[in-house]
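Our preliminary data section would be incomplete without showing what the modeling component actually yields. Below, a chain of 1125 amino acids is followed by its predicted structure, encoded as tokens that our downstream tools consume directly.
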Amino acid sequence: MVMRGVMLRECSTNCKQLFFTFSVILMLGVISACGSGGGESELESKTSATLPEPIFKEISFTQSGINFLNTIREDETHNFFNYNYIYNGSGLAIGDFNNDDLKDIYFVSNQSKNKLFLNKGNLKFQNITDSAGVAALKGWKNGVTVVDINQDGLDDIYLSRSGRYEDPDQRANFLYINNGDLTFTESAAQYGLADKGYGIQAYFFDYDRDGDLDLYQMNHRLDFNNKNTIMFLRNEKPEDYDAYSRDRLYENKGGRFVDVSNNAGIFNSAWGLSAVMGDFNEDGWEDIYVANDYLTPDFLYINNQDGTFTESIQDYFQHMSFFSMGSDWADIDNNGHFDLVTLDMAPEDHVRSKRLMASMSNEFFRTMVDEGLQHQYMINTLQYNHGGGNYSEVSQVSGIDKTDWSWTALFGDYDVDGLKDLYVTNGIRKDITDNDAAASTDSLYALGKQLALGQVLKLLPSQNLQNPAFKNVDGLKFKRSNIDWGMKRAFNSNGAVYSDLDNDGDLEIITNNMDLMCTLYQNLTVENKNKKLRRIDVKGPKGNREGFGTTLRIKTSDGKEVLEKVRGSRGYLSSSDPAIYVAESLDIQEIEVTWPTGQTSVLKSAEDLAKGTIDFEDAVFQNIKKDQVQGYLTKVDKSIIDFKHEENQFDDFIKEILLPHRQSEHGPFISKSDVNGDGLEDVYVGGARDQSGSLFVQTTDGKYSKSSQATFLKDRAHEDMNATFFDADGDKDMDLYVVSGSGEFYQGNSRLLRDRLYLNDGKGNYSRAAADALPNDQAGGSKALPSDIDGDGDQDLIIINRNVPGEYPKGAKSFIYINEGGRFVDDTKNVSTDFYETSQMLTDGVMIDIDQNGFEDLVVVGEWMSPKIFMNDGGEFEEEELDMDNLKGWWQSVKPTDIDNDGDIDFVVGNIGLNNKFHPKPDSPLYLFYNDFDENGIGDIVLSKSNGDELLPVRGRECSSQQMPFILEKFDNYEKFANADLTAIYSEERLDASLKLEVNNFASGILINNGDMNFEFKELPSLSQFGAVRDVIIKDVNKDGLMDFICGGNFYGSEVETVRYDSNFGSIVINKGNGNFETLSLEASGLVLNSDVRDLETVTIQNEEYLLVTSNNDEVRSYKFSKRP
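Predicted structure:
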């Protein structure tokens, strides 16, 4: 968990020296205890005159009798220098140890006495630790799991121990067997469970479906000096692993546990902090997810159904958390699939983020990915499960991406509304990643000074933090609700669990804090709202009577499906209440039960459904056939277009360090036409730099053949953007205009930005037009739009351009070319003064007669702007004044349609999507200032957001100073920069003189035409906001007379501190009428576009319709439209 910023820092100091000095800071800086809690978090401290009745009430230890405090002391054996996990805290567990139907609590102390509190009712507890014999005074204790290990009907306690002990016996896990009289006997060795690794937590589950409980034991590495060394981790061989640093898989063989790790394929060595046992690929067998701290990526072991596992995380997740900590697993939107949350350590607070977080190096990130360590980002991740093993990471659109030093993630229906809310614990004794503390210590060591403990402690700030409570608003979006829920206090918390401690029908939350008394939150929902949860206990097969791994699919009268699973180890280092809790208001019609053995049963009768217990021994097993859903599209195994885009290597960020995203990776695009007059649709696919575009001609047997490439090969040095088929020379065949673009042609290569016109001989053979056929304009282009602008019967062109290479965000001039006998002349100024004066980053456009006056009008979209319409009166284009100030976005696409069948033209507009870190809104825009702030002749990019009172920098001191070195001189430490507003950093004079742009809406949506150029913006559903919508196909998919649309797009080109836009797997949005729209599930749509999608096109082959999909640096994919009733 600690020393996480080291490898992120780009500096010239010797890495070994930096590691040593910063290690000393971390070693010494956290000796002192946290201050007493009570301060409110900066993230949610606003008060309101009218607050709702809180959901939770904190119960003091004097009321409850739970007087437990976890605190630690350092010595020569255990200190931060030699044991980085010393401040990770400890867990707690829920169990009914005397079977009185009241849940008891067992707390773990890292170094002192563990405590067991017996529930006496009414939230009163009795400390019975000493008489029970479960104090576990020896060793370093981390996680705890409650399990009935011998299946005698009594809850036992299993402790994971670690610590830097030379004698492995001092780390051996403890197993306390319940004697039935509230006393316990330690018996780990007897059961084969005295694991001597560096234990974190244990997870009991039935991986082989034989009806008994097996064990996954998570252990951590001790060589913290190697935790952020890429090549060491990549070159390390399994035979080099420390035997005590490996996770272990134990198979239950007749009640004794046997290590089968090697044979099962569980062979790892990492810094794991939590795990989830779940069926990630939905094949009915339990898989293993491991959340790993530091550089090692998370693991996902897929169960091969033969006792072995295969690590396959790259096949399931597009990206993941960097410093993965706590995790949890729940169906957040009741779509019948379990979703995964993993926590990291990114602060939401501006000052903390600028003080504590160092910059990510482009080179380091690129090397990490190239070496197979995956795309890892320093945010919480929420892997939304579409089904079929397809996961989109959506933490940013969900609003849970940043929660600071986070440990426990615990889903539960805390407000009893039928949706899973999220409770998170966080905090750290000292801010040991504070950049100023590291710099100060480095300076003192450089002077040869020996630092006393007190000196170092003064350098390290300390701050308790709220434990974020998130209300699930609509199944996907969460709202921070600490104030409304009565959780205002700040703590330094680690483990947490929930349970209905007072049996009143709602869930209490209990946390294990460091240096502060533990916390008990009483849930008041029943008292204040008269809403209750129904508890369902599950009894599993003989060897697993807890029913761990049992899944309930609860079907309700309103068509909902609520998915629940019985799990033990939940909450960081903890063991939560395994009972199932569902809203009592649910009208349950049926419960499908999938048992850990793989057998299934169904409860339908009113009598069975009313029972509070579901028992394996009473089950009537039957095969449950899943309804097969035929998607509207079916992927073609072998694409009908044999083309793979091959993006060249170019680093946009070398010259433009603060660029928000690449400008060199916008292709490829695909266009269709009948090029040889045979009535069949042919296609052109654009190439990357040094890769020619390709023309594919459809043959009568329904296949595509690549035409002669000679002409296109000559121009392979260009990078193709959009291509347009049109009749340029009036000979009644389809010529081809290819727009050139990219952000890389600024170093003497601007000639490669010149567009190209290829003339058709009528047979589909192309030759490049004469040099003077086109003006010699050179800009980073987007698209060419053909239209008879001057009404002379031939096709003119509107050329929309995107960028000036190397000078983001400057927009290139766009042009209007008039066709004069096959030669095109720039007549922009005469045709449209408004368009002539437009220099914006245009990304897409369409020609459409909006006012139905017989002349096509121009609609354009782009980055850092709102959509624009230029009306054509037959003589010139004039920009229309539109009420779209709240629609400034990073627009990617625009398509016209009549969405409501009212006879006028509406528009579907694709944006970057809501799943991003910036979250711009009309009252909180994202600003960009462009100026030569350091007066070195190179333009500088400054991104900024407002905190409500002042503008603040988005980027940090380190990366900003790499572009503008004066920042280091002006702000000689991180604290000063963190507390400075934009004016203090760059001066009001220079900001006023800058090119200033803003965005305030990143949602994709529909512009509904209400007449008189009055457009209403309707956001697409949340499931279509996971990423960029680069293209849209308008089509009545379900043949109900209303136009639906198919959306596709992603963008992997973000800078490395911004999570790449990779979570849009494509969507079909069904028009329900009356302004209502529904995004289909991936299963219903048939789409899985998990690539860097750029363009969509439909073609007809032998009377069958297909969808073609192009992606950056990937193959063309093909989908066939299904014939559905």
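Residues 15-29 form the longest helix (15 residues). Confidence is low (pLDDT under 50) at residues 1-42. Preliminary results of this kind motivate Aim 1 of the renewal.
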